[in-house]
Design goal:
The chain is built from one helix and ten strands, in the order αββββββββββ. With 203 residues, it is mostly beta strands.
């Protein structure tokens, strides 16, 4: 799949949103929200003196709750298959808060977000100490930050696009619950996501 797919989808969703944004639409972000969409991830890894950059396409889902003020608490899950010489799966769970700019009378609501990120990686068919190939896995806990925007097409439905960055270190690797001698890897993931968000109980 093309590296530009999520960006193209984000632009397409924005175009549709602007096409219907001529009519005034409230953007009440209070209460419960659910969302989903496509996402991409660029993984920049540092193995000592070796640096790599790899790319993958996946999906994400999110639930959130908006407060009286323009603050939203969210939990998001994403899963991405990274395309490299040895493909691997990267999952990420983010928990944090989002601050929205402009007021509820605006269709366009840019925001910034900050939170904690739990990332897990599973790599298949890895040769360790010249034995048969096996899968290895690791996880890391770090921070995540990003910026994006909602574009409301109805009072309950918005298209959404955002970019995020999440640094961290995968220091302990295992296979079938047993530790394996794999060096620590410093990893920064750069994410782009595009999708829709729905407030089912918004008035």
């Amino acid at each position: 799949m093309s590296r530009s797919l999520p960006i193209s989808i984000a632009l397409a969703l924005s175009t549709v949103g602007f096409a219907v944004a001529g009519a005034q639409t409230n953007s009440n972000t209070r209460g419960f929200m659910i969302g989903a969409g496509l996402s991409s991830m660029t993984v920049q890894a540092d193995f000592g003196t070796v640096n790599t950059s790899e790319f993958g396409i996946g999906y994400h889902g999110e639930v959130a709750y908006g407060m009286e003020r323009p603050v939203v608490f969210f939990a998001r899950f994403s899963s991405t298959v990274i395309d490299s010489e040895i493909d691997y799966d990267m999952t990420q769970v983010d928990v944090g808060a989002r601050y929205l700019f402009l007021g509820a009378a605006q269709n366009f609501r840019p925001y910034v977000e900050l939170g904690l990120a739990r990332r897990a990686v599973t790599q298949l068919d890895v040769f360790i100490e010249e034995v048969e190939p096996r899968s290895i896995s690791s996880s890391s806990l770090g921070v995540t930050g990003g910026a994006g925007a909602h574009l409301f097409v109805t009072p309950r439905l918005a298209v959404d696009a955002a970019v995020t960055v999440s640094p961290g270190t995968f220091s302990e690797w295992s296979t079938f619950g047993q530790p394996v001698p794999v060096e620590s890897v410093n990893v920064t993931t750069l994410g782009v996501r595009a999708g829709v968000k729905f407030w089912p109980f918004s008035k």
